Amino acid sequence: MVILDPGLTITPIGFIRSGKPLKFDARHQPDEKQAETNILEMLPGDKYQKALKDLAGFDRIWLLWWFHRNTDWRPEVLPPRGPSKRRGVFATRSPHRPNPLGITPVQLLEIRKGQLILGPCDLVDGTPVFDIKPYIPSYDSFPEAKAGWIDEVDAALEGPPAFTVSFSPQATEHMAWLRQEWSVDFEARLLEILSRDPSPHRTRRIRSRHGDLFDIGCGAWYAIFEVKGPVVHVLHLKPAFPLKFLTDPARPEIPDKDAQLAFRARWPQFAD
């Protein structure tokens, strides 16, 4: 239950089960062409089941939900898309809002008892959902509407990527090992971000390291890279969490914990 003020409360009707513990895993505006299944697990009770009556037949629904991991809000934020420029939070989809409410259109694949089976969505596991509304194309779609600064960013992205991304033999080995042994694969995400703009950016988790090196955070991992003219060269990967965290029994929820420990054992020279 979320208490907004002494006279107003909002109670979740259910919770998302997406299998995505990290914000990195829950991509903004996910591609519906990629097969993905998520579940909205409704709270028990006949009232909620009756409330789902007649929802079958709608291809999409709106979910109204809570950014439950946020603890503060910012009047200006740094969106992940476009140049490193701060925008007013009300002109963005940022989670750092005074009342951190989110709204997402999502495919409705199936209705089961107590569950809605959904397509791709950008919600992390455990997200509380407050309401469901049917998506009605004739009311909810305005394809000719202007989108402010987003239109400018989209126009800039229509051109070819400004950078070519290459992987060293070591980085290629690391990526293949993670993919084959642990089903961890963020190569496409690296290519998407670094080919457009590899400059330091807090929201895109790109940092300047010592010398000419940079790193980019990808979930529980860092990719170390350098930039030589129009070429971004990914040198190697490394775990994002220090060993003292990975071996601390009080921190059981660290993502890719076993994979990070195995990486450290196999490539200790790239672990720190």
Kindly summarize this structure in a few lines.
This protein is of the alpha+beta class. It has helices spanning 46-51, 137-140, 149-157, 169-182, 187-194, 243-246, 257-266; strands at residues 2-5, 8-10, 14-17, 38-42, 60-66, 76-77, 87-88, 101-112, 115-118, 128-134, 164-167, 206-208, 213-218, 221-228, 231-239.
Radius of gyration, in Å, reads 21 Å
Instruction: Look at the structure and give the mean pLDDT.
Output: 88
Total strands: 15
| Helix amount | 10-25%
Largest sheet: 6 strands, antiparallel, barrel
Summary keywords:
single chain; YaeB-like fold; six-stranded antiparallel β-barrel; 272 residues; Elongation Factor Tu (Ef-tu), domain 3; 2 domains; five-stranded mixed sheet; alpha+beta
Describe the structure.
There is one protein chain. With 272 residues, the protein is of the alpha+beta class. The chain has 2 domains: 2-154, YaeB-like (Elongation Factor Tu (Ef-tu), domain 3, Beta Barrel); 164-270, YaeB-like fold, CATH 3.30.2310. It is built from 7 helices and 15 strands. The protein has helices spanning 46-51, 137-140, 149-157, 169-182, 187-194, 243-246, 257-266, and strands spanning 2-5, 8-10, 14-17, 38-42, 60-66, 76-77, 87-88, 101-112, 115-118, 128-134, 164-167, 206-208, 213-218, 221-228, 231-239. The strands form 4 sheets. Strands 3-4-9-8-5-10 form a 6-stranded antiparallel β-barrel. A 5-stranded mixed beta sheet has the order 11-15-14-13-12. Strand 1 and strand 2 (8-10) form a beta hairpin. The longest helix is centred in the middle third of the chain and has 14 residues, at 169-182. It starts with a strand and ends in a 6-residue tail after the last helix. The mean pLDDT is 88.
